[in-house]
Amino acid sequence: MSALSVRKALPMRRPTRPLAAGPWKFGGWIPFAVAGALACTAAGPATLSAQQGYFGRYGESSRSGPLREGLPDIPGGFSFCRLWYTQVRNEPGGLGWSTDYPRADRNLSLRVSELTSTPISYWGDGEPGIAAVRATDPNLFQCPFLFASDAGTAGFNPEEVIALRQYFLKGGFLWVDDFWGDAAFHHFTSEMAKALPEYEAVDLPMDHPLYSIVYRVEKVPQITALQFWAPGASTSERGAESAEPHIAAILDETGRILVLMSHNTDLADGWEREGDNAAFFDAFSPDAYAIGINVLVWIMTH
Questions:
Q1: What is the domain range of residue 121?
Q2: 99-147, pLDDT tens digit by residue?
Q3: How far apart are CA 136 and CA 93, in angstroms?
């Protein structure tokens, strides 16, 4: 199936109410064994939840902490875990670890449950099971999937480096997105070299089976932030320096992806902003979801 299949299957999601912050929850368990239980058969679109939408980036400021702590109360499926890192440098338009949070996390979780037969976890109040964890949080090892936005601003202290290395070598996976230009790429890969000095970042070629495990992705889309975008205008947020989007990866000696990097593109804005602007949705969200679902299914089954 091509990304066009996603476009046909996706009704535009309209935000209807704020995300409840709720009482902070603790507990829950998301074992690595969930990877063996995930089914990757694409399904038809399900009825959309009425509990949708929340904060936009307009007027946002960086969050000091997540909406909830701990892991979802009701495990048994995929949980979107975000890396809550320390910001050590600034990039234009970014908010550090909370960039695109929490809508991108929630929307991708809902879409993977609608467009595949993959179950997801939930909090006790019915919200999808999205979580944010520090690198030194023991809950990190219950998150087979970890995501970070604005990755070119992240820094890791020695304790975090040790924890991340253990996480990767025990089967963990990190996907970073929405970092633009040469300086951001160099900074992030230098940070990863502290944890994984024996491996180097390489481009992930378009014939890699990740690009076709559910939807056929023929090129990496360049998706810009909604507030930067205008129909017909350039989507490169750093001009000529970031004109070419690409996906790079750090792989181990067996070819397993430890770290995936979508660089010079903001795929998560295609998830976060799907209900904010119909033209933006049509231009970017189907491609963003095609890659997002492919990555999730690939990581959960390999």
A1: 3-9+82-301
A2: 999 999 999 999 999 999 999 999 999 999 999 999 999 999 999 999 9
A3: 27
